[in-house]
Amino acid sequence: MKTGEIMEESKDILPFSEVTKFHGHVCPGTAIGYRAGEIAIKELGSSRAEDEELLAIVENDSCSVDAIQVVAGCTLGKGNLIFKDHGKHVYTFINRDSGDALRLSLKKGLDEIGSDFDDLRNKAFSESATPEDKLEFEKEKDRVTKKIMAMPAEEIFKIEQVDIDIPGEARLFSSVRCAKCGELMAEHRARVENGALVCIPCFEDYSRN
Hints:
Blueprint lengths: L15 H8 L4 H16 L10 E5 L4 H10 L8 E3 L6 E6 L5 E6 L3 H4 L3 H8 L6 H20 L2 H4 E5 L13 E3 L6 E3 L4 E3 L2 E3 L11
Parallel strand pairs: 1-2
Antiparallel strand pairs: 1-3, 3-4, 4-5, 6-7, 8-9
C-alpha cells in the first residue's frame, strides 16, 4: 500500500477516499471523524442524512468534523451539525426519527496510538526540520491513520447510549440591518444598543464602570 492510500470501509458508507477528496489530504483526524460517523450510522440504524434526520453535535473544530460532514451528511448549513467549542474529541449523534442518541468520546490520543507521533510532529514543524523529518512525519501520519481505520470501535471510543433533549430543526430568520455598520444579520442574532439593533461585532457590552 502506497503512502496516502487507506483501505475502504463498508459499502453502505461512503469510502474514506471521499473524505480525503473533500478535506484535501489524509490524516488521523479525518480517520477519527470517519470512524465516528461510521459507528453512528451503524449503531443508530440510520443512513447518511440527506436532510436533518441525523444530527451531530461536535465538541471541537478539528479535521474530524470535515469527515463527519461527508460520512454522516451533517452540515452547518442544513442545521444538523451543532458545534460546541469545548476542544474535546466528543461526538454525539441523534436519530431524530427514533430519538436514539449515541455519544462517542475518544479514548486515546494520537501519541498513544502512534508512540512516535508527537516527537515526529515536533521535529517536522521545528525550524531545523529537514525534508527527511517531514517525510518521516508524513509516513507516521499515514501509519496512524491506517491504524485508526482498522481498530475495533470500542478501542477508539467510549461509546454510550444517552438521553438528550433533541435540538429543534433549523429555522429560517428574517434579516435586519445593523444600525452601526449597515450590514445585514439574522434577526435572532441582533443586539439592542440605545434602542437600535446592532450586530454582535458592533455591540458594546453594558458596563457600570
